Amino acid sequence: MTTDDFALVHRWLTTPEVDRWWGDPDQDKGDDDELPFEEALGDPNIALWIVSHGGRPFAYIQDYDPHAWANHHFASLPLGSRGIDQFIGEPDMLGCGHGSAFIRAHVERLFAQGAPAVGTDPHPSNARAIRAYEKAGFVRDVEQDTEWGRALLMVRLR
């Protein structure tokens, strides 16, 4: 992801399905009107990615070092593990199997780079995301409140 992708991602964040789980992007702006993605783009603990299919961008995924934050809910994962968050921004790409496919591919790349485990934390009511993660090999762990809200912790081990 680059700064050239911000307008696209902002548009995706305003679609009903993404907004339902990620919230209003304009509400999360910092003191300097910077979107969270702009801040994250400069953070060495986070990698941001635009996912394309047939040359068409349709989704976003990020991976991060959960040990970079104090008391993160994935702190129990081994050092070198990554956390992921994602969404499909193009509504016509939902329900086609693309989510589990790009999640699986991204996790396999993280494993190839040495990550011993990958965690993700969908909202417990987000059945579509949970199904995609399970199809990508994640196993349900526990449901708990996190700094970012209620979450179902899911893990995939290498």
Could you explain how this protein is built, in words?
This protein has 158 residues and is α+β, with helices and mostly antiparallel strands. It has helices at 6-13, 16-22, 36-41, 98-112, 127-135, and strands at 46-53, 56-64, 82-88, 117-120, 139-146, 149-157. It has a six-stranded mixed beta sheet.
Which key phrases capture this entry?
single chain; 158 residues; alpha+beta; 6-stranded mixed sheet; 5 helices; 6 strands
Structure at a glance:
This protein is α+β, with helices and mostly antiparallel strands and 158 residues long.
* End-to-end gap: 26 Å
Overall mean pLDDT stands at 90
Q: Determine the structural class based on helices, strands and strand pairing.
A: alpha+beta
Low-confidence stretches: 28-34
Strands, count: 6
Strand content: 25-35%
Shape: globular
Rg over CA atoms, rounded to whole Å, is 15 Å
Helix percentage: 25-40%
Main sheet summary: 6 strands, mixed
Report strand order across the widest sheet.
Answer: 1-2-3-4-6-5
Oligomer: single chain
Taken in chain order, the helices and strands follow as: HHHEEEHEHEE
Number of helices: 5
Topology, element by element:
Blueprint: H1 6-13, H2 16-22, H3 36-41, E1 46-53, E2 56-64, E3 82-88, H4 98-112, E4 117-120, H5 127-135, E5 139-146, E6 149-157
Parallel strand pairs: 3-4
Antiparallel strand pairs: 1-2, 2-3, 4-6, 5-6
Helix pairs in contact: 4-5
